[in-house]
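User: Show me an example of a complex going from sequences to structure tokens.

Assistant: Sure. Here are the input components:
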Amino acid sequence: MMRIAAVGDIHLGTDSGGTFAPVVRGLAGRADVLLLAGDLTQHGLPAEAEVVAAEVAGAPVPVIAVLGNHDYHSNAEREITAILVAAGVTVLEGTGTVVDIDGARLGIAGVKGFGGGFAGASGTDFGEPLMKAFVRHTKEVATRLRYALAALDCDTRVALTHYAPIPDTLIGERAEIYPFLGSYHLAEAVDAGGAALALHGHAHAGSERGSTAGGVPVRNVARPVIGKPCALYAVDSGAAGERTRMATPSSAPSVDLAAPTAP
Amino acid sequence: MEDAPRGLRESLKRVAVTLKEADIPFALGGSYACWARGGPEPVHDVDFMLREEDVPRAVEVLAAAGLRPVDPPEDWLTKVFDGEVLVDLIHHPVGRAVTPQMLQRSSEMSVDSVRMPVMDATDWFEMTLLALEERYCDLARVLPMIRAMREQVDWDQVRRSTAASPFAEAALLVAERLNLIPPVDAAPVAARPGEIAASGGAVVSSGAAQRGGTKGGKGGGKAAADKHGGKAEGSNTGGANTGGANAEGANAEGANAEGANVEGSNAEGRAQEGIGLRIGKETGSPVPGEKWDVAGPSVLAGQPDVAGQPDVAGQSVLAGQPDVAGQPGLAGELDLAEADEYLAGELRERLAEDPRVAELGLEVVVAGGCILVEGEVATDVRRRAVVDVVAEAAPGRLVRNEVTIIGRVPVADETAKVETIS
């Protein structure tokens, strides 16, 4: 069994020092890894990232994170990433990492993700340049998640995003804003990439549990949703991945990759 | 069934005495609080309000006194049986935590010959009306309670705090049309500059004077608003506010000693919770003073923060980013003449964009000239900044800040459940 602690949307500000460190320390002996599902800072300021770094520095388990929309707000996501990496955090964006847990290999692939909506009620790559850029960005990050998952050499795969891959874990949010909360392209990637579990945040008023069309369990670990400092999941090594593993991902992207919209 | 109420009362008294002896703060709530205040006697309900952290100890002492605890699936209350009688120990009525302030606002009353704290009538109606929903909106039950308790209630406060509920609005409309309760202030705190806060204060204070005439002046929030009216007079403008202060003074004097005490503690409680704040027009920020302890410092604390991020704003300006509009100082007042729902939408965006709050999930309701903000933020500074941001965008409006702070448990819960994914 691999024990995963996860939380998103901790929104630490410069006034939040000391609030999260006890949670991290308390994971010793209770979890094998801590996953942070984005929105680590409140305004995306490097000074706030320093607070996050100080809170997780010296964590008793590997800390793996994706950034969230708040972490991009001040156009300092690279600096924030560097600050977190310097504190020992593995920050994923279209990339993956493998953690060895008593000989079992837990692979985590992560992207921030983006909005766009869910099957039957989603934005399309049509019309104004801004609208096309919006939808293409979603498709692009979803594709990167899929490949990052597939590239993991491990026994069990976990997908980590900030935005939601399915609408089930948004229940509680107003339906009108679902397209800003996630995209079904992320769920496609989760299924195609053979993940055993998908974790996300972002939707504070959503629900904790759901699953993709392919049967992969999805958990919304946004701090207000889980109602505790972090959620704990035990994942069977190996077995779960096989069930959802449909085929080796094809070598060519199934969607057109647009030119990157951000540097 | 004739015996049922007597059995209920015995259980009620047993629980109250046990909690009092254990020094656990509580207040009688539910329909027995209504009964204690003159309403119809219930036949199946005994409810006590407690803070969540006191519930385990309350259950312990009640179990020691021979009652039988049961752990219901609901997460907002727990239950104990006294023989056949079910007693609810409620810590989150209508989703809101029972606060020490709420318990302080309750008044010591004799209930069937036992003295105990009984929930404040204004708080009681806020909860009762907010509990109305699509499957449970029988006004035939509510109207007799309004009749029984109407002079003990600050109805403007109830209107403000229930503004988000269409069922509460309907109940209050019916009660108003039946002349059970005073009509809405004819001149709601509106968007006319200058005299607005002043005229609003005058309306509020005259209402308080009426209440003072009918009864010992219970209205909790009203007391706070009046007191603020007095404060505003000191540092702001407007003779009508002086009237507010006078009216309150007269009110307190007119009440008997006990009533005055109750009112004093009510004012204190409301002010501590920082609700029902009136925003000064001139500065676009809350008027400083004792009653502004909540909003005042955060204005001061919030501004340097903003000033401390010139690089953010600077970049945005250079890049021509539209989010500049969200930066304080660059963001002007909103058009307060536009429809309430547009104003609510604009305020919601302001709260998301303003760096002092930057919370995307807050709900804003604009009704009757008042602005209600609900939701959760991570820190108290951000919670208090909500009022500042709204005040700058919509000066002169009454703001009710129902935003709560996301529970921060400092240490990982050792008993936290682990979900097995298979």
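The lines above are the inputs; the final block is the predicted structure for all two components together. Chain B is about 50% helix and 15% strand.
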